[in-house]
# Entry
Amino acid sequence: MKASLDCIPCFARQALDAARFVTDDSAIHEQVLRKMLHSASTMNMQQSPPAFAQQIHRQLRLLTSVSDPYRAVKDRFNAMAMAMLPGLIQQVEQADDPLEMALRLAIAGNVIDLGAHPGMTETDARQAIASAMNEPFCGDIDAFRDTVAKSKDILYLADNAGEIVFDRLLIEHLPSERITLAVRGGPVLNDATMTDARTVGLCDIVEVIDNGSDAPGTILTDCSDDFRARFAAADLVIAKGQGSFETLSDEDRALYFLFKVKCPLIGNCVGIPTGTHVAMRGHDLRSQARSTP
Amino acid sequence: MKASLDCIPCFARQALDAARFVTDDSAIHEQVLRKMLHSASTMNMQQSPPAFAQQIHRQLRLLTSVSDPYRAVKDRFNAMAMAMLPGLIQQVEQADDPLEMALRLAIAGNVIDLGAHPGMTETDARQAIASAMNEPFCGDIDAFRDTVAKSKDILYLADNAGEIVFDRLLIEHLPSERITLAVRGGPVLNDATMTDARTVGLCDIVEVIDNGSDAPGTILTDCSDDFRARFAAADLVIAKGQGSFETLSDEDRALYFLFKVKCPLIGNCVGIPTGTHVAMRGHDLRSQARSTP
# Structure
């Protein structure tokens, strides 16, 4: 989906939040914000919002000379989620429908997003995950189950650190031998990279590749040739996170989006209220968007 | 007070809201926003927030070729407030302390601010005014009464159209023969100009001057020589609205600010929660700001 003019005040807010998250140096806060404003004043509005966030975070890394500014917080959220894992495994095993429970928890894990929630604490994340089954949900678990059962080559696009522990939980209830997990090709925000996949043990369960890009989403033209080949070859893509939806919503192929709606513009676009946990086919989300006034 | 980096996402939001308010032409929305972003990328952060809003609204008038884009809404709010006036007069006359009631209503009228509340309707304004006496209040009515009683040359700086009907109500409970009312020198947002003062009958009650500026506040260096001379000569200035506070907060002279706190940054700066109705001396607000952590 293309960025909207309404994204721009939000980009300015995110640039400032990110700069403050990464450094206490107010001169750098100002530089990051001014660079962002200058870029936005000439930005191509045909781009998706994550293409813009990618630019902001590149500037931030350049100006602070810190190659992975969110490393410490990614480690913290990985550790938090790993500590929760035994309890979550039990919760899934005891559920009437373990796959449904694992899927709902994987979507709940999408709350660990320091772009949308810059001040998020581990307590916030724990609370959000504890109430996962009470959140509004939009999707068809049985259709997801059937699609997965029929697919031989599944590409699972991870989103954030911490969250990928919940992805691990879901992947363990899917035919993991048919799954390849893709992480970001370089650090951006608290998005998961190979380091995170390794830390939470995903590399021992499935093949993990990186997409060659440092965008907080999946901008195919910015991804590596290898990744694009895997994307084209897969007969099902499971795409985690709002950034995945923003960058892949127009892809006409077998694609399930799993995310929590955090942005009211996206909510309005697909006719689903903010806060909803979504597990929907791209095709169905597009139909819903077309029928939304 | 100087603008903060936090003002910038808000300016972007305001530029977009204002453009959409004034025209349905999405190409103009984009142009206004891009111009604003470009200006903000090099803006002088020593300026007050209204200096920046002044630039946004000049651009908007230039790009739309509409010299007073808010004229219709100003007329509507003037008419609404004039229709409320007989009831308000009765309310003031029946109050235990008519001056207090008139002062509180004048501050309540400050809710009619299409910069802070772009979607404000007449119903919203009526509701806000009906609950004027229940809002949190910060000020000393008796000190205000005493200061006014001792002052011989009072300059009353008006803020918005509609709101100035409530100013009229207050002025009628002050020694009006010693009051000069100042309005903006040119259209900006829904701020009151000479047209509005005339429409609501203020020109029949007090001398009305304009300040020579199209800023949504009182930037003295941008005002006319005549206005600056009147400002310097007055032994009391009563300054309505948050824009007045933003532009005159550092003036070390007899000055009462009457406004509703609408911006959390200003609230934090002076240690007064958003939503509070304020009637305070500049000197006391500065002391409070200094003692706020």
